[in-house]
Amino acid sequence: MAQPLTFQALPSREHVLSSAENFVLYVLLEAIAEGGAGARLPLNLGVVLDRSGSMYDERRLEFVVEAVKFLVDNLNPDDKVTVVAFADKAQVLTSGAATDKAGTKRAIDDIDLLEIGGGTQMALGMRAAIDEVRKNLTPQRLNRVLVLTDGQTYEEMACVDLVRQNPDIQFSAMGVGVEFNDKLLQRISQDSGGKYHFISDSNVIPSIFEDELTGLRAVSVRNGRIDVVLSQGVQIREAFRASPEIYPLGEPLVGAERNVSYQIGDLEAGVPASVLVTLVLPPRKPGAVRIAQSTFHYQVPGSDEQSVALDVTVDYTLDRTLTSKVSGRVMNLVDQVSIAKLQSKAEEELKAGNVDRATRLLNNAIVGTQRLGNVKATQALTGLMDQIQQTQNLGSKAAKTTMLNANAAVRKTQMLDQSILKDFKPE
């Protein structure tokens, strides 16, 4: 039976210097699901909507209502949907099969009539949606909660705990404006394998919901997980999710048997899902050496867990000319990850008031995006640099918006044409 996906391990170099101490090697572990791997699963959605007082600014609530009604119109009769509104309290607007679309939309239209206060208690809204989603929870459905907010919430750790306590549900988080906690929403989505969206302009809210629905319809492989077993003497320095978005995967927790796992979540057909690990290798005698074994575990809708395993091998050599040859695809992603790290560090320096350090880091990031030809990221970072030079801080709404736009642009993996990568030369 043909595999419903491809899984590969691409080292940055096929040849490693035998005499080198602590030789650094990057390895890209990448899975790509084929289209039509299994029947489309019905959806089990919970939609959590902030209805605090600030949602009336910039017609945010109006666009949210439009977006959720679009979502309802495009659900199938076998899909399940719950809509929850929250402020100081949470209230379920509608829950059940997506058959009475007119009734569901009427309930959504009445969201501004609810007596639920004007604050922001996101955990209450999440908990109410989770309770409803769990009533229909099954491996035969795609179980996801969509959370949209425009403000700082009380009890932030309660939101994180809810994600941790419900590993069988994915969470996508959407932040509107500039007052929400972007780090919290990123953590919610990253920890569960969902998506994070920064929405600077309220009128794009419907298109973000459309993107979420399109992505759910395209899922053909579920519950992806990459396991890595290291050979003796090999260490992992760090690991990043490399596509479709870039973010750190935390400290590598290598067990006693020298293994580590990375949750990948659901895979949309044709969209690479990859992890970039930085390995530190010990010296070895010349010859082919297995430095790790990697296994991708997954489920195709309607079947039990499956897996595909492969060895990660390199050739140790004394010939330095061989070790200078690199993989253009891997090193391009290494550069994109490095730029994301620079942007993140610059943001930290700005918040600490270290404008000069932040400026130097952003300059380096801009040089990198220009070299890679990433026009969107270059424009976003240049705009952030201009804001910093004008204001010397991130206090204004314009500066915060620019910073969040830059973060989003840099995090999105740029997939380059293979003809460009074949001549890639690292600096």
Q: Could you tell me the strand content as a percent range? A: 25-35%
Cross-sheet strand order for the largest sheet: 6-5-4-7-8-9
Q: Which fold name is given in CATH as the topology of the largest domain?
A: Rossmann fold
Q: Report the strand count.
A: 16
Order of helices and strands: EEEEHEEHHEHEHEHEEEEEEEHHHHHH
* Uncertain regions spanning at least 5 consecutive residues: 419-424
Look at the structure and name the CATH superfamily of the largest domain: von Willebrand factor, type A domain
* Total helical elements: 12
User: What number of structural domains do the residues give?
Assistant: 3
Q: Biggest sheet: strands, sense, closure?
A: 6 strands, mixed
Rounded to the nearest angstrom, the radius of gyration is 23 Å
Task: Please describe what this structure looks like.
The chain folds into 3 domains: 5-35 and 221-324, Immunoglobulin-like (Sandwich), CATH 2.60.40; 43-217, von Willebrand factor, type A domain (Rossmann fold, 3-Layer(aba) Sandwich), CATH 3.40.50; 329-411, Up-down Bundle (Four Helix Bundle (Hemerythrin (Met), subunit A)). The radius of gyration is 23 Å and the shape is globular. The longest helix has 24 residues, at 328-351. The model is unreliable at 419-424 (pLDDT under 50). The protein has 12 helices and 16 strands. α1 runs antiparallel to α2 (101-109). Helices cover 36% and strands 31% of the residues. It is α/β, with parallel strands linked by helices. β8, α5 and β9 form a beta-alpha-beta unit. It starts with a strand and ends in a 6-residue tail after the last helix. The strands form 3 sheets. The chain has a 6-stranded mixed sheet, sandwiched between helices. Strands 1-3-14-11-12 form a 5-stranded antiparallel sheet, with helices on one face.
